[in-house]
């Protein structure tokens, strides 16, 4: 729940920022000189890119959460079998062992979105966020809720 609150607060702050930056871009364009119109257009590009990025991330999170809910309903969510340090951090060797098991499971069933979902969790636990995201995108695509799978 804390992660959801943090995400929505961050998204709200970004939207306010986009509105402020956009209004500054419009003000520059309204000045009417060649220089201010050019800068105004350049400034307006930033909120457009930011809104697109925020929208794509929100879609990704919503789709991943739907998969997690479906997997939980099936009783297929990965069990947390990771060892932790006294400070609560995941032990690297433990994460690597679970990752190896999940990778093997995915290699055995490459068209099963459930395996890719569990592999994404294992990548995340091993602190490999880019690969975790790609594995989750693959799970979403295999499930039928996303873009075509790209290798």
Structural description of this entry:
- By secondary structure, this protein is mainly α.
- The protein contains five helices and no strands.
- It is elongated, with a radius of gyration of 21 Å.
**Total of helices:** 5
What is the terminal-to-terminal distance?
A: 33 Å
Uncertain stretches: none
Instruction: Give the helices and strands as they follow along the chain.
Output: HHHHH
Percent range of helical residues? over 70%
**How much is the average pLDDT?**
90
Approximate shape: elongated
Notable characteristics:
151 residues; mainly alpha; transmembrane; membrane; transmembrane helix
Set down the secondary structure blueprint.
Blueprint: H1 2-31, H2 34-74, H3 92-108, H4 113-125, H5 129-143
Helix pairs in contact: 1-2, 2-5, 3-4, 4-5
Describe the structure in brief.
The chain has 151 residues and is an all-alpha fold. It has five helices and no strands.
